[in-house]
Amino acid sequence: MGISLSSADRRAGLAGRTPSVATLCSHSSLQIFYGARQEGLPTLGLAIGPPHRYYDAFPLARPDRFLSVPKVDQLPTVAPELKRSGAIVIPHGSFVEYLGPERFAQMDVPVFGNRAVIAWESDRRKEREWLELAHVSMPRRFEDASEVDGPAIVKYYGAKGGKGFFLAKNRESLKDFRPTGPYVIQEYVLGTRYYVHFFYSPLSDRGYRVGHGSLELLGMDRRDEANIDELYKLGAQEELLKAGIRPTFVVTGNVPVVLRESLLPKVFDAAARIVERSIELFGGMVGPFCLEGIMTEDFDFKVFEISTRIVAGTNLFTSGSPYSDYVAPGLSMGRRIAQEIQRGVALDRLDEILS
Amino acid sequence: MGISLSSADRRAGLAGRTPSVATLCSHSSLQIFYGARQEGLPTLGLAIGPPHRYYDAFPLARPDRFLSVPKVDQLPTVAPELKRSGAIVIPHGSFVEYLGPERFAQMDVPVFGNRAVIAWESDRRKEREWLELAHVSMPRRFEDASEVDGPAIVKYYGAKGGKGFFLAKNRESLKDFRPTGPYVIQEYVLGTRYYVHFFYSPLSDRGYRVGHGSLELLGMDRRDEANIDELYKLGAQEELLKAGIRPTFVVTGNVPVVLRESLLPKVFDAAARIVERSIELFGGMVGPFCLEGIMTEDFDFKVFEISTRIVAGTNLFTSGSPYSDYVAPGLSMGRRIAQEIQRGVALDRLDEILS
Amino acid sequence: MGISLSSADRRAGLAGRTPSVATLCSHSSLQIFYGARQEGLPTLGLAIGPPHRYYDAFPLARPDRFLSVPKVDQLPTVAPELKRSGAIVIPHGSFVEYLGPERFAQMDVPVFGNRAVIAWESDRRKEREWLELAHVSMPRRFEDASEVDGPAIVKYYGAKGGKGFFLAKNRESLKDFRPTGPYVIQEYVLGTRYYVHFFYSPLSDRGYRVGHGSLELLGMDRRDEANIDELYKLGAQEELLKAGIRPTFVVTGNVPVVLRESLLPKVFDAAARIVERSIELFGGMVGPFCLEGIMTEDFDFKVFEISTRIVAGTNLFTSGSPYSDYVAPGLSMGRRIAQEIQRGVALDRLDEILS
Q1: CA of B47, closest CA in chain C: separation in Å?
Q2: Is 0.90 exceeded by the ipTM?
Q3: pTM for this structure?
Q4: Which of C297, C324, C331 to mutate to test the interface with B (most CBs of B within 10 A)?
Q5: What angle (nearest 5°) sits at the alpha carbon of residue B212, between those of residues B206 and B217?
Q6: Fold entry, domain C5-135+192-224+257-352
Q7: I need a labelling partner for A127 at 20 to 30 A (CA). Which of A116, A173, B36, B284 fits?
Q8: What is the pLDDT of residues C208-236, one digit of tens each?
Q9: Taking CB atoms and an 8 Å limit, are B208 and A54 in contact across chains?
């Protein structure tokens, strides 16, 4: 991050006041608002159209006020009002997806974290380059179907939320795949999926030291995927395909998990190297990120994706997780974000965690 | 509910005293007793035969005293003693199932909630009418096997707990079904199952307003089903059927889940319309109910069942859920019931929540 | 246990001082250290090589100090230092597995629990004898493949962590099994798996009484198994086997579950009989044990394994479980162990819980 002029400009409105926490009303907003409230920060919900009434059902997670725009592409127009309110915007997956990475990166408001990360995460090729530089174990990528020597998964570029993925148990079955756009073929790793929620704090000088800051692990989940997670009930995939029933991997929710303690060193080591490379490549990640990987029967943790902001799986841990309770009882990712902002204010180091 | 004479009669014993909370020793009784104790209400366990000693292992959830009858059909005989004790009976699934809906509806004791709901929930046709009037998305029902145009599930009328369900991946496979009684054929919706735990309070005048009261969401789970949930390990269903192994859907337990936040409006909207119709149709539901549905890959929430009382999935959330913690930290459904009773006493409005 | 001379010798260092809690840095050590700290006991981490830095990320679960040995077989050499420190060693699955049951049993340090149990648990035949004497329902064992009359699972003797298990849907499929060592053939029970975490306290004189002590239930989980738990996504097992993809059952993590309340009597009754037989057979188990079983569609709980010490599934319940919260809010198995030690000190009855 450092102190670029534009970043400093954006933060001008924050000088000498308690910042408020703003985010788009979706994804993990309840947790973000709840955590901010626990840390004494005012909250502001950005809604597309009138805010849905479900916030009324969760009084402790309802933002102090809403700011609505009729359409998602008008979100940037609230920037002046956000700056006037001393708001810090917390990015989450839906926020960046709805607005598009480019427009999000250009929003003229102080954003929690380093927005330079977006360019590295939203481009599959750059993401892979970063993870490879960090020597993270990953599923292999095949240039051509002829290279496939085991189970494989085909993903379309820019496919949203798991629709249109194609799974093949071997090269033979891959012949049934009829591409309708640009795609990548990946090794389909056999094992158990874990989504591991980390937090990197550049402001902390104790704990698990990485760079000039510290790495924390605050929880783990596994995603629920419609319809693949229940499709087996109907019979063999081969037969289902013949009957015209195709598996999809659309995420609908999450279940909590813990990992064998003896495997924690592997996920910590991978996360630490990823943070170190991020510092060299683009000034470092700040705050929440999630390693999404598969633990094989040989205890190799193959990372197939990184999310560089709060993920929805943390919504399981509103009031702490089996891991975050070892950091501070009842700590959620939303609250951890608010704590980092409060620390930035107290230490007069907000510039290191905003962009 | 209103003040029917018989309902007022039943409540006569409650006048001017702290009510006690009674329920049948099974299903979700630990949670109900624990929640009542947290709110300062005495508790009374109704046991068939001597109460099992497992209550001794949970000192905070053990009822203050037990009342035993030798057989389940003698439960109605404890009514006079319950009335003398100022008890309010909390219905749960096993309570109504063991006693039968008719006999439960006639028990001469004050019951938490509106017992008129039983007639609408225990009859599959009336339940569907109610949900259709609420414009809730549901799996299609086929009058005849010839109408089936995709995966289907066959359920016997009155089948208990998932035994004897038949799953077919298409009309073709349905030919293997040999009926042994009256049944219904339903569309088998592909997606992920969520059991969403709501609470409707006629006494609350804030929050998510529906009718004259408020709607709360206190948790979500997914049921464990023996043996379908593990059967895939043995091979393809087609092959298993040939080997004489039949899938069943008997519920044995529950796992916690959360839903994508962006899908909350859908479940809230459906629940609100169901409550509104219940008010018109039979004076309204009161307290816990559960929407049991499937989230499809297109984010359509297809409700296949409603339970109009506390469900066992809430037992995961003895000390709060990722949702109830936004209402009040650590809030369980059992405690929420006790809070509603205490509020009814304080406002002198018990008549609106008992029947 | 009783007061054998050697056991008393081992405990000599504990006289008149606050004991410290020591365990091997793996498995469930974070929980054990955290629980000890909550109860005011000093903690000591035994590491093979330098301790991994992940402890730094969990300040509340980091042991007060570490004691390292270069290789696992040098662990017994720390015994004198442990005795000097007034340490009580908490055994867990990895501790016993790494060191080997014989060498663990001979370690010259006070160990929490009765080390005589190791001989009964580490030998599959003695374990079965014990459970049979307790009249626990178990999967059948077949002397010969010709006896198999349904689904079966083949396990190699001493197979570690689920690798090399072979699953057959019937006798026919068993013909594909090519043994590479001594094995047992077991009935493969269809149903849902539950791992039920108990604690037996010889020092407690209230609650669910068994022998001279009490039985507690503190949580339940289900294990994640790579790769069997996700293999179905690729197609029918039969086809996968042809493609050279073999299911394995290696445990990588855990998910939380609860059981139907009406099934609790079954698991309590089985656990109570197992404790009673343990008292007769070898002086009794002390502290944590886990019943690992399958709940069938007929609600028969078939126990396929017992672990006689803290299991990793308890790591889900760092801050309480839906069951332990009825014993004491927020109670973990790690904390429960520390409480038992503190009680042993206070009552001057440490000799009954150490060996």
Answers
A1: 12
A2: yes
A3: 0.96
A4: C297
A5: 55
A6: D-amino Acid Aminotransferase; Chain A, domain 1 (3.30.470)
A7: A173
A8: 999 999 999 999 999 999 888 888 888 88
A9: yes
